[in-house]
Amino acid sequence: MDHEFYGLAPINVFHGEMEEPYAYSHREDLKNRHMLVRRKFVISGILENAFIDITADDYYKLYINGKYVCQGPAPAYYFKYWYNRYDISDFLKIGENTIAVHVYYQGLVNRVWNSGDYRQGMIAEVFINDRLQLCTDSAWKYTICKAYKSGGIIGYDTQFLENIDMQLYEKGWKEEKFDDSKWENACENTMSDHKLFMQKTRMLDIYEVKPEMVTRIGEGIYLIDFGHEITGQFKMKAHGQKGQIIEIRCGEELDDNKRVRYEMRCNCNYREFWTLSGNGCDELEFYDYKAFRFAEVSGSDDIIDTSSFSAVVRHYPMDESLCQFQSSSKLLNKIWSICKNGVRYGTQEAYIDCPSREKGQYLGDITITAHSHIYLASDLKFFRKALEDFALSAFISPGLMAVAPGSHMQEIADYSLQWPMQLLLYYNHSGDVDFLKKMYPVIEKLEKYFKRYERYDGLLENVTDKWNMVDWPGNLRDNYDFDLKKPIGNGCHNVLNAFYYGMKKTINHIRDELHIGYRDETDGLRQAFINAFYNPETDLFADAEGSRHSALHSNVLPLLYGIAGGSTVKSIVSLIRKKRLNCGVYMSYFLLKALAAAEENDLLYELLTSSDEHSWGNMITEGATTCFEAWGKNQKWNTSLCHPWASAPIPVIIEDIIGLKPAAPGWREISFTPHISGSLDFIYLKLHTAAGSISVQYKNGCIDLELPEGISVAG
Asked: Is 50:88 a contact under the CB 8 Å cutoff?
């Protein structure tokens, strides 16, 4: 570790959102700390295999013999902290080798990492031919890199802008021949309270892409277009005099003057300055990542190497061959594409809400994002890790946190109520009954937490310890009639209780799978919900007890969870037909799923492929290449243009239009009930599941279904 951190007691950043936080004080000089670490070692004899176990707090980037190897770890709580194992056989040679690690400690309390707690440093072990060759100790050398000067903090204390001064950069520090004799010996931290576990999810895909277009728009000014939104770092080279400055701007879109809109809608100001060393060719190397499509470079024509413009893209691996979709509808294909790209670039080491303003893993977001991701990437380990992240947050509140892991404390009741539903989704796709058993105690504590707020009839009221969100942004709540300002107003309202009923039904299902006995309370809770919120004059559900207003949100969830029956189902469908997607993109997932539950698939397809102001078609009209946070750029004051919680079309197309989903855990049996729209002449879907590859083709009114051997079909 850095000597400056030695002996500092870890800061407790954890508390309930509505609780008074502990007195918090963090040294400013220990924030935004870049530590460069090196170690040389010799390999003699035969090199058959080699791997490294490595981690750092907050983050590391590893280089061996001058070549980039990997980076990580995934964000985690200190008491279950991930380390990475990586095969480094191809990076080593017989003789002397050099390991170089760029360790970053951010020091901010935010949604990104568990930072701001004085836990800093790295640990590594190198194994050669299955024997321990090298471990971290005081023989490793380090220095603090002063080149990464803060250009300010952006987003919600999300990241430091990087004004990089190459005059202060340790040029060549990754290389074997670099002289590190003046560097300090590392400080061994014998008091670390980290508990280390091997990270089971895969490491990020990191690769370089060239721009689709480079345009000189003025003297020494270049506009670079990568063709679509990406997540990563802009990269370039320059050869100039000492102290010359190049300005770099990045953004998701262009402004009215066709310049990069670096003062972005999403509350990020991507404007940074790069100072040249005057010592040969300098290479720009940002550490943290951004969400952008465009870059703009301003300097001098004679120093800028335009051929070097590129982007280092990063995201969780997504094998294109595992999920393929094509149809005769150009609009549906584009909707699929922007949702797929949103999930791709919004899935980093966690399911993040956006790769710009927050970079945090939100519990409610993964209801949608994870549902899309398990089809697109066929990676259930990643979903499992996310579920466990939130289960671990129970040490802060048994009612679970809205953001996990992370040092930003936020709680949203609606989100917590969805965790059992997410767990059941994972189980249905994986058949992993052992994990279901492992998570069951978390379910019991979660249920007990909310039971504190039950009134005489079983409905929840005055859930003031957590925010009740309903939908976001607030202007897309369809005038929901309940006080949702923090702290939440007293009373009993619809959406929270609909989610509570849905959670109770889900928990009963999980208990059935685990053969655990229980007293079924759902019939009584359903009747209490009807008694409290049903309006016989409109045959709809009201927003709150005593309210006469019926928002879309107050009726979508009762339709989805089977609370509504008889004529009320038709009344709710009529309300949806009238109001259409008069909600946020988050709630649209539940709306489309509710229509599917009511077998109103024609209306579902109509809304899915509409070009209304509130639609995915509108995103495409506004130039989307990844799905937006809201239906349009101006429908939220700080809209991010890459937000995977808008990816509901992915599971809806697969499960409710093509009609393919698991009927028994682990895809041992599939449900196949196609609802192909009359406007579709052709559909093709290839899907990789826990049981193998499935393909569906619809053409000229005929359906061809290919299944792995041993899977039976229901429907």
From this structure: yes
Report the alpha-carbon angle 527-528-529, nearest 5.
90
| Residue type (1 letter), 216 | R
Query: What's the pLDDT at 682?
Result: 96
> Within 10 A of 576 (CB to CB), how many other CB atoms are there?
25
Please state, in angstroms and rounded to a whole number, the distance separating the CA atoms of residues 111 and 115.
9
Bridge partner residues of 254 (DSSP): 260
State phi, psi for 399 to the nearest 5 degrees.
-85, 5
Q: What mean pLDDT is reported for the chain?
A: 97
204/71 Cα distance (integer angstroms)? 8
Q: How many helices and strands, by DSSP H and E, does the chain display?
A: 14, 30
Beta-bridged to residue 704, according to DSSP, are 697
Alpha helices in 287-362 (DSSP H): 330-346
CA contacts within 13 A on the Cβ side of 126: 23
**Chain-centre distance of CA 598, in angstroms?**
30
| Strands of the sheet with 682-689, listed across from one edge | 323-327, 682-689, 692-699, 702-706
Interhelix angle 553-560/585-597, nearest 10 degrees: 40
Alpha-carbon span 96 to 79, nearest angstrom: 36
Percent of the chain at pLDDT exceeding 70: 100
Q: 508-547 burial by CB neighbour count: b if 16+ within 10 A, else e? A: bebeebeeeeeeeebeebbebbeebbbbeeebbbbbbbeb
Predicted pLDDT of residue 23? 81
| Amino acid making up residue 208 | E
Maximum Cα interatomic distance, the chain, rounded to a whole number of Å: 86
Q: Among residues 463, 499, 459, 503, which one has the least CA distance to residue 484? A: 463
**Terminus-to-terminus CA distance in the chain, angstroms?**
60
The pLDDT of residue 662: 96
- Strands (E) in 116-270, as ranges, are 121-128, 131-135, 141-144, 148-154, 159-165, 184-185, 196-198, 205-209, 213-218, 221-238, 245-251
Q: Sign of torsion, CA 392 397 403 405?
A: negative
Q: Which residue has the tokens 């969400």?
A: 291
Query: For residues 265 and 640, is the Cβ–Cβ distance under 8 A?
Result: yes
Please calculate the CA angle 245-247-253 and round it to the nearest 5 degrees.
175
The pLDDT tens digits for 35-91 are 999 999 999 999 999 999 999 999 999 999 999 999 999 999 999 999 999 999 999
Between CA 666 and CA 674, with CA 672 as vertex, the angle to 5 degrees is: 145
Please identify which residue in the block is written with the tokens 């101006």: 634
Q: Residue 99, Cα to own-chain centre: how many angstroms?
A: 31
- Lowest mean pLDDT across 65-74, 90-99, 675-684: 675-684
Phi, psi of 41 (to 5 degrees): -155, 160
Q: What is the share, in percent, of the chain residues with pLDDT greater than 90? A: 97
Q: Which residues are within 8 A (CB) of 295 and not within 5 positions of it... i.e. 6 or more apart?
A: 211, 223, 224, 226, 234, 248, 249, 250, 260, 309, 311
Q: Dump pLDDT digits (tens) for 155-184.
A: 999 999 999 999 999 999 999 999 999 999
Among 126, 121, 139, which Cα is nearest to 193's? Answer: 121
Structure tokens at 378: 């066929």
pTM: 0.97
pLDDT digits (tens, 9 = 90+) for 495-532: 999 999 999 999 999 999 999 999 999 999 999 999 99
- The token pair that represents 715 in the structure block: 């429907």
Measured between alpha carbons, how far is residue 458 from residues 443, 527, 529, 532, 557 in Å?
18, 10, 9, 11, 18
List the structure tokens of 1.
């570790």
Report the Cα 669 to chain-centroid distance in Å.
30
**Is a pLDDT exceeding 80 seen at residue 20?**
no
